[in-house]
Amino acid sequence: MTKGFSLERFFIGSLLSTGFLQPFALAYDAGSGRSAALEEVIVTAQKREQRLQDVPLAVTAVGREMLEDAEVNTIEDLTKVMPAVRLTPDGNTNAGSINMRGIGTNVFSIAIEPNVSVMLDGVVLARNSLANFDFVDIERIEILRGPQGTLFGKNASAGLIHVLTRDPSDDFEARLRYSYEQPETFAGNFSKIQLTGSGALTDTSALRLTGFYKEQAGHYEDIEQDNHNPDSRQFGVRSKLLWRLSERLEARWNLEFVQRKGDSAAVPWISANPQLRERMETIEPSRENIQVRTLGNNRSDSRGNASSLSLDWELDNHVITSLTGYRQATYYSGQSIAALDGKRTDLVTNLSRYDLKTITQELRILSTHSDTLEYTAGALWFDNDISEDFYRDLQDLPAQFAVGNAVPATGQLLPQGLLAGIDGNDGLSAEAWRNSTVTTKNLGIFAEATWHLADDWHLTLGGRYIDEQVDVKLSNASRLSHTNSGAALIEESFPLSSATVSDTTATGKLSVLHNLSDDHNIYASITSGYRGAAFDVIADDAANALRNPVDPEKALSYEIGAKTRWLDNRLSLNLTAFLTTFEDFQAQVRDLTDATSVVAFRLDNAGELKTSGIELEFQYKPAAEWTITGTYLYNEAIFEEFITQCFYGQQPGEAGGRDVDGDGSCDEQDVSGGSLANAPEHSATLSTRYDHYFAGGQSLYGQLSGRYQSQVQFSNEQHPGAIEDAYQLWDLRAGWLGAGAKFEAALYVKNLFDTSYLAVITPLSLVNDRRDYVGFVPASADRTFGLSLAYRWGN
């Protein structure tokens, strides 16, 4: 339940933010002498600089000022300005699943690549965990929806987020920015400081240096440890060197280091069956619960460094580009949960470390000589190694829960006779170990060409050939023992084994763009996407997982759109209709050995799914001092064909549930027509800003921003308790720019109406009860007051 939601408020806020000041603004504009025309937006969505209006695909560019004014600091915050982008957290602040138009990769296995790709200055990031960085000194972020594999690679079957940092400047400039936030009722303040400096080193070179430090205090109350989590501290530095080797040859060398130390998020119960609720005693499960119990050892640390070198060589009719990337990162994650059954069953630790190393080399050629034909061609070599060591320790599991159940940490189904002579209240200990290594080598050869058939007709055709090999090494072991006696009941191990899967395929793109006028374009496109085969390295049956990798995932997308400018370039209005189908979608599902098992997971191909809808984006300047920006997404993201396990407590005959083996329990269900996880049908953003200018380069501004999402289902199994109601969030900001716009001070309020909401809901039950589930109340689910100060030196 939310504290402040009403659909009426969203519409009232929309009307106030778009219409209340208009008479005054228009009158003021008449004498201001300032231009009310929208600025031209340049993007590189097709690996060449183009006007956004001329790109025949759904792309949004978010500039530095908008990012800062909306306090968009990470990938998770992008939903403030683009509702098609969403992040599903998993309790580990180093990770999470990035979704676009309802499609994302929310799995535990290190072997699965994302289907929403993130790039930093042209270099692809191999996993979404690498995208958990702060937006510091950013030039812009380009968000491309739909399959983008033709130019950007196979792990962009749902979309692409391209983060571009600022280039060095020849003139000296520097900037210092400090932010502080304090929630109204939650514990846990936030502070961040960043410093950037740039200038010429010689007549032919320039350097840009950026550093930042931030602290985030936790807002969950751990009543077992008498503290709050998840705390985090993060530090990072980045340098970019620009070197003009000659009039035609230019080099950019990026270096980066980031280190993070913090906690993994605890697990708050938001609903529990009466017996579990009674045993909890001090915690009251509810959708606003932020009280947890842990055993400590909640860790979420990371350390990484990266380097990239780009060379651009201008010939008479072409530009040849070489882009070399290297990235290394190490992640540590530890999580504990006290008393899963209210008094007993302690997850002492869920500990993992994984190391990642990626090397990429791209070489491409870009035409510049013809008004009739433009083309880009090249090749990308991608070499990625990931290794993980995992350990889980579960203690004091009542023996009565284990008979006939799949025991957490081991996944073993215990026969009745195994516990003969053991009291049902005795405790069991379950431990599991796993080591896995995944190596992916991928060669992509691509080409894309645009024929300007006439002044107003443009045809684009592109394709990519993919040759990939995935090698995996895997070993695991598990042990179930009687706590009092120490006697081992089950000991199993799977020796180090290896497997390989390889594949070749091709993806393509066809689009047509028609210029109705200089300000009005329409387009249509067909694009295919691909995500390669993968191994389920977290499966309990490791031998079967190595023999039977999950099949490749394929996507096919259709889009039609219009990009228009109106009212003497004061209004930009872009509209897109889309339909994307996925075959053999790679999904993570709960693995039930029988209807009363607890927590085990496996990868599966989810048959077919579809995402379709309409996107609307607009920017309007009623006056030079007033800007209104908005987006709307209608998105139907559903399973077309998917047979999966039953949700907790589901009965045969209920919601498509079936008893396959005749034992009276629900074994599987058909969720065709069900919603994909974390894919609301309706979502929208709206922002309005007004600036009042004074002499001497001073100004005051006010900004009101809101976002809305409809009801959302968080469980692919369509669990009836994993649904979050619709909600809206509003932010308010006011600021002053002085000293010739070099100094800025701003006060802001996030979540103005104090709306409580859940970022994710996860069913979790020891006794197969649908009333048992946990959820994450984010820090942003509380009214928060903030201060931002910035000063700039130079021009």
Explain what this protein looks like in three dimensions.
6% of the residues lie in helices and 55% in strands. It contains seven helices and 44 strands. The strands form nine sheets. The protein has a 22-stranded antiparallel β-barrel. The two termini are 49 Å apart.
Brief overview, please?
The chain is mainly beta. The protein contains 7 helices and 44 strands.
Question: How are the secondary structure elements laid out?
Answer:
Layout lengths: L6 H13 L2 H9 L11 E2 L6 E2 L7 E5 H6 L15 E4 L8 E4 L15 E5 L2 E3 L12 E8 L3 H4 L6 E7 L7 E11 L6 E13 L2 E12 L3 E3 L4 E3 L2 E13 L4 E14 L6 E3 L2 H7 L10 E2 L6 E16 L3 E20 L8 E22 L5 E26 H4 L24 E28 L2 E26 L5 E30 L2 E12 L10 H6 L5 E14 L4 E13 L2 E5 L10 E5 L2 E16 L2 E16 L1 E2 L12 E2 L9 E3 L11 E13 L3 E12 L2 E2 L9 E2 L2 E12 L4 E8 L9 E4 L9 E4 L7 E11 L1
Parallel strand pairs: 6-9, 13-18
Antiparallel strand pairs: 1-2, 3-8, 4-5, 6-7, 8-9, 10-11, 10-44, 11-12, 12-15, 13-14, 15-16, 16-19, 17-43, 19-20, 20-21, 21-22, 22-23, 23-24, 24-25, 25-26, 26-27, 27-28, 28-31, 29-30, 31-32, 32-36, 33-35, 34-35, 36-37, 37-40, 38-39, 40-41, 41-44, 42-43
User: Beta-sheet strand percentage?
Assistant: over 45%
Low-confidence stretches: 4-8, 15-32, 593-598
Number of strands: 44
User: What would you call the structural class?
Assistant: mainly beta
Fraction in helix: under 10%
Overall pLDDT metric: 88
Radius of gyration: 27 Å
Gap between N and C termini, in Å? Answer: 49 Å
What about the largest sheet? 22 strands, antiparallel, barrel
The number of helical runs is 7
From the spread of the alpha carbons, the general shape counts as: globular
